[in-house]
Design brief:
signal, ABC transporter substrate-binding protein, 16 helices, alpha/beta
């Protein structure tokens, strides 16, 4: 009887100890709200991090919201509707120019080239950039990175986008593809998978890559307010660790394997299209293989902004870029 009482008492003690420990474990789970500027296969490593449970491994419960447009994404971040924004680095420069006392800091880079492609309404066997002269070109929203990179590439090939062609820039991001499909423009600048879907359906033909032409730039990065980093440094480090693991996974796995992992994020896109797009982005080096945004990329970004007449003023690299977190993650 005494032996049974001892066993019962021991079990009771164990249960008393386990319950608080389990509760503590739950308390350690940190919620992180991400706002992405658009839903795109261009962001494949982010979806891999979610689907493969890399955030969960770090004790993070991530919720993802698509906030169409850089301005809306930044508004969501500044108003604390989200914790982390996935958007072009140029937006952090725009916020800085407004004199914010809580700067938006780029802490982990996801893509390192432009993600758009030049799509022609007609099938062109031997495309050259001067074929755009005298045509109507449906471009991206003025002030955004796609538009600035697009104009940079046109000028690189001796085309004045405001004189040598009719440039349309007043169409909202979400309506650019439908506008082209309905007959507006002879050329259009599109993200994937829309460009490949159009090609498959015979609505247009990919003739060039703006990413290949514009060089390395911090096209899309994870950023947050300095105050959030100050108050949640460990969380930001865990977040970056999950992203870095996903970047390495995408780099070391085939386009088909990546497509299989992220397909649930693209319900209306066929698997073969997803695979083709991932392969295209990998082949042109669009996916960053690590989360570090380097000085050369930052300078190239500001050069492109300046060329487009959209740079408010030069911003010091270290004032809006934090590489310490990414470097720490990579060392470990």
């Amino acid at each position: 009887m005494k032996k049974w009482l001892k066993i019962s008492f021991s079990l009771l003690l164990i249960s008393i100890l386990i319950i608080p420990l389990a509760a503590c474990g739950k308390d350690k789970v940190q919620n992180v709200r991400i706002g992405e500027v658009t839903r795109s296969i261009f962001y494949a490593p982010q979806y891999v991090a979610i689907a493969k449970g890399f955030f969960e491994e770090q004790g993070l419960n991530v919720t993802l919201t698509t906030t169409a447009g850089g301005d809306k994404t930044m508004t969501a971040l500044l108003s604390d509707s989200i914790d982390v924004a996935l958007v072009g680095s140029e937006t952090s420069i725009y916020v800085s120019a407004q004199g914010s006392n809580d700067p938006v800091i780029n802490f982990a880079q996801l893509t390192q080239t432009d993600g758009t492609f030049l799509v022609s309404r007609q099938k062109l066997e031997n495309f050259t950039w001067d074929m755009l002269k005298g045509t109507t070109f449906l471009g991206q929203r003025k002030g955004g990175m796609p538009q600035m990179a697009g104009e940079f590439v046109l000028k690189k090939h001796g085309i004045d986008p405001h004189k040598d062609l009719e440039l349309i820039q007043n169409v909202d991001f979400a309506n650019i593809a439908p506008a082209f499909a309905s007959g507006t423009g002879e050329f259009v600048q599109l993200f994937e998978p829309t460009a490949s879907v159009f090609e498959k359906e015979g609505k247009g033909y990919i003739v060039a890559s703006f990413g290949t032409e514009s060089g390395h730039i911090p096209y899309t990065t994870f950023m947050t307010k300095q105050s959030y980093i100050n108050e949640n440094k460990e969380t930001v480090e865990k977040f970056t660790r999950a992203i870095y693991k996903a970047q390495s996974w995408v780099e070391n796995h085939s386009a088909k394997e990546t497509a299989m992992v992220i397909k649930d994020f693209f319900d209306n896109t066929e698997l073969d299209i997803i695979e083709m797009v991932v392969k295209r982005y990998k082949s042109q080096g669009s996916y960053s293989t690590d989360p570090i945004l380097d000085q050369e990329e930052w300078d190239n970004l500001q050069n492109i902004m300046e060329e487009a007449g959209e740079l408010p003023k030069r911003v010091d690299y270290k004032s809006l870029v934090n590489t310490e977190i990414a470097e720490s993650v990579m060392k470990k």
